[in-house]
Amino acid sequence: MSDTLDAPQQTETSPVNEAMRALERRTVAHLTAGGTTDWGDAPMRISPREYTDPVRFEAERRELFGKAPLLAGLSCEVAKPGDVMLFDSAGPAIVIVRARDGTLNAFLNMCTHRAARLVADCSRRKLLVCPFHAWSFDLDGKVVAMPGEASFEGIDRASRSLIRVPVAEWGGMVFVKAHASDEAIDVEAWLGDMGPELLNLDLAGARLIKHSRVDVEANWKYALDTYGEGYHFGALHPTTFGTSSISNVILYDSLEPHYRVCFTNVGYRDLVGVDEAQWPSAPYGASHLLFPNSIVYGAPMEGGGRMIGMYRLYPGDEPGRCFTIMSTYRVADAPAETPDSAFEAAHDYIETVVRTEDYSVSKEGQRNLQHAPEGFEMVYGRNEIALQNVHRNIAAMIGMPLD
Length: 403
Known about the structure:
alpha+beta; Naphthalene 1,2-dioxygenase Alpha Subunit, Chain A, domain 1; three-stranded antiparallel sheet; 9 helices
């Protein structure tokens, strides 16, 4: 990833260019003031039970990961009819498929004969064929073949269609709700003011480069907290992220229940006192939380253009375990001469830093919280406003007030 502000020029009057310039003005104002940051009204105390209580944990899995729209991936991963995306992270196994008419369908990934897993990989296909007894379904979930059908006299094919899961597509993103239902998802209503910001990332023009999974011995919220503040850069990342980003200087925008934060590249120091007309043009980049669990981050690449990092965090099988699906995409504005290997290298670098630095702290912090003495409270500073509001929103969504 680039540490400079020398990205290719965009049209000066474009809304995307102006959106980024507005963020840059705020960043330079903080630096001009000596290194201030966006912050909240007061510090916030929080009980270790937010990370250790099994009752709260089950409520989060049920109310957030079982009912809320979840980002399953980008449209580029299911671009053509017959393309398949698998989504198993939130509980039920789900298969998402592009139908012949170009729409998306999502189903429980189970054959309606004896519940075997129907699809095991993401290869393009014309039919969904069960590996157990070869029952076959079209891309709309209808049964088209039942070997030995005479054995199922009185069983109506129509009654054995695949079980639907809510799915919707908007702005190059695919959302599902992890439960069986034929309800619609109003993505624009769910995203609200976050929607226009995400369009600035040109997700519809992205291409998947790499996926990986990182397992963490920590509560999913402890791991998620590491993405929402730049206060730790200098201490935790002195030789990695801290070399390119200024610690404790961030922008925060509440887009309830979502948020956007912008970390401050060291190159912005060079713009202090410089007339804005002389500032280089940079592509839109910021870190966005799509509530409850998905970070979508745009960052410049060496040589121009951008990468998209997507980091989706999910609870494990107990309060002190979680995992992250990390994905890196190439945006259409990346020059042709920039090889895919550069994006792979960026993915590997970010994964290594997050796993060995951020998540190492998460693991040890979680262990300490499980053994914290009675009355101990964590505290989020005014400069950790994103974390404060995420915990408030989670508590409201699950109907359990913060301790």
